Amino acid sequence: MKPHNLFANGVNFVAWTLALFLLTGVGTPLRASDELRRLTDSLHQTIDQKASFAAQKEERIARIRHLLGADLTFAQEYKINSRLCDEYRKFEVDSAIHYASKNLWIARQLGDDYRRCESSLQLSMLYSMCSRYRDAETILKTLSPKELPPDLLVEYYRAYSSFWEYYAISLSDNNYEPQRVAYEDSMLCRMDRQSFRYKLSRSYYYTNSAPQKAQELLQDLLETEEVGTPNYAMITHSYAMLCRNLGQREEAKKFLMRSAIADIRNATRETASLQQLALMEYEDGNLADAFEFTQSVIDDVVSSGIHFRAMENYRFYSIINSAYQEAQQRSRANLKISLVAISTTSVLLVLLVVFVYIQMKKNVRIKRALAQSNEELRQLNERLNLANSQLNAANSRLNETNRQLNETNNVKEHYIAEFFDICFSYIHKMEKFQNMLYKTAINKYYDELIKKLKSPALIDEELHTLYDRFDKVFIDLYPTFVADFNALLREDERIMPRPDALLNKELRIYALLRLGINDSSKIANFLRCSTSTVYNYRTKIRNKAIGDRDLFEDEVMKISSSALQTIYIFGGSKSD
Asked: What is the pLDDT of residue 509?
């Protein structure tokens, strides 16, 4: 086996061993979904910040309490006490009882029966929450339902329903469920059907009998309620109980977490959601989470004084605590075994490292010799590649030179042949013209002679013939000149010669340029026009170019495979 393979196998063995011990250790199992994991992390962070939320609640209460002063009327003090009672109700029930009792005293001093009944019902509800059931029932018995106004009658039935509910929870006895249901039915019959309390209570009622109706009611409430409010916490708690009844365990956990987070952020210490969540985590074997959630619930019970769930919490806490301690002991035992295994593995790893180190030193010596040989071979290859590159460059230059020579020879052959042909043609024409003038002069047709000498027709005809021959020779040499030239111009500015001509004046100017005639005066002489006319044509066409107008004529010179060495038709010299 090669040394580096042996080293890699040793490292893989250690990695797999560590992974095995970590997987067999006690920890929170993987969550079923990313959303549930995010909610769990958020809940843990919220629990860690619970003290800061409680401090914010106390600051808000202190600002309200600061409103109490010596110059207040009984009515004003009653209103402030009611606000304080609402703030303390699920935070410190003893303080809430204090302010409710003060309001009851104020109502009696004012002789206000409505406020007396209102504060009595509020005090009864608070007594039920802190397990003072005899005091709560005594207050309720002093009130006559027939004498209560409609809104307080709803609160009366609600207080009685809560009394039996909290009493049954504290005793863990379901025999009082009929009394609670009876008072709840009476409350629902008299409540405003559009109110939040009615819809929420109705969803509780339908949870077992008509889950679809309960879900519709809760969904409507969720869509209208802002996330994170106390009402939102109650809605999500109800939704969680519905999901649990329907067997949707993961969804129930999600809603319980949302409810618990809202409760903690609002410093609501009657945290039924967190208690239910702790129970579900315990049932799923997540002892660490169940222990933390239960510990938080116990702390809230102690801080708030809301005792109707206390016995249930304490019994549940003792079960979870025992299971958690057993899990911790197993974890410590597994940790000891892991440490022994890791120590043994470490010793083996050290021995393996020593062996690998010896093999690596041998490999280093071999690699040095190979590296030196490779370096010499690389230098030899570089010299060979350089020689090949130089040879290829020389061949390329030679091929280019040969190609240019061939093309130049081709141009020379064409233009020399044309030059001699034109010369012979003009000598013959001059001879005929001279004979014709001689005969006219001999016959003394002086008027006709003068007329022929003054007429430009012959010159125009010869010029037309010359241009036609120039166009033909040029197009023979550059068959695609017109198309390539127009490709350099904007589409709407392209130049097309007449159907009976190969080139026009503008194209001839650039044909002469392509042949190497850059001097505008020579172009003007050939085309029998002024130098300014040639300049204007060149400027006008450059302005029609697609690209950079300053590079237009350079692009025209590239219309062919190479630059041509040009010989002028009529005694012209090669342009500089």
From this structure: 92
